Description:
With 387 residues, the chain is α/β, with parallel strands linked by helices. It has helices at 15-26, 28-40, 43-49, 57-64, 68-81, 99-108, 121-128, 130-143, 150-156, 172-175, 181-206, 223-231, 243-255, 294-305, 327-344, 353-361, and strands at residues 84-86, 117-119, 213-217, 236-241, 262-266, 282-286, 313-318, 365-374, 379-386.
Amino acid sequence: MNKEVKSYYTDKIRAIDAKIEAIKIAFSPLTFQAIRALIELGLLQKISDAGDEGITVRELSKLSGISEYGVGVLSEMALGMGVIKIRRDDCPSASSNGENASSQCRTESSNYDLGHLVLGKIGWFLLEDNCTRVNFNFTNDICYKGAFNLIDSIKNEKPEGLKVFGDKWATVYEALSTLPEREKKSWFDFDHFYSDIAFPEALPIVYAKKPKNLFDIGGNTGKWAIASCKYDSNVHVSIVDLPGQTAVAQKNAKDAGFADRISFVSGNVLDSETKLPAGADAVWMSQFLDCFSLHQITKILKKIYNSVDTNCDVFVMEPLWDMQKFEGESYALQATSLYFTCIANGNSKMYRYGELVGAIEAAGFHLVTAHHNLGSNFYSILNFRKN
């Protein structure tokens, strides 16, 4: 377990602070949507643009066309969340210890005037940090409505929240190609943001032994396969994925000029009808196994076991929540597990190091090497071979 997550073992928070955190949880659906409104209405950006001078509720209202009431309630919530702050010198008399000064400061403000609002540090991350923005959009567009069905998903071990997008699919992966454009973009932005960041550090590890034939299982839109062809001019990549994904990947491979070096095996890797071809020098699975239960992971690896020889390197890249450098990253992965529960498939999660290794070794493999903390999202690459 990462040394940073000491709070998993101790409960030293003060009672008053614990109550504040509990209240935040109680109102979290409302506070989330308040920040969404501030962002999508352009209000948070206008506060940021005002810089240290700040901007008043009245000025924000005039610039945005939103009523002072609307701007006011959203700004008050953002103040409570620490997303924005009031300019310190707006009420200089409030720095004294007298109660009269505080009362005077309050009575000088009229209607919805809070003073001059400035962006706080939390607000900066909401606007400028790519990781936060990707997570926020993914939560809003993919998870928010379906999360109401989390209890049923837990009980039934099915993604009951997926029905907000229709009732035709058993998993989100079957639905991806038909999602509305905004939701589709948020899903792929989320998926690619995490894995793609680690690619520059992953490529030298995977191609250190110069594999000629690499199977990319769960290759999605072909980003890893294309990156591989650019990195190693001699490699041939075979993408194994659902038909909807391989169709997109095939187009992307052609557009990138690698149609002759990237081939495709379409099908559900869990189905007995889907056969993996032999001849792989290396097998690559990037952010793929977290889409399956531990039992299914072992089943997939047994299929791989039967198609490779003892010289084939099997590489698994995953963000393991107990191997993260900071507690915030672990929190994000734990939350992502709930997406898998209620939206994606109902039975998978973001795994811990030990449980994922155990499921793979149960299929007849042994761990050769483990590389941790790759990229800014602290990915792990686990290298296995047949026993």
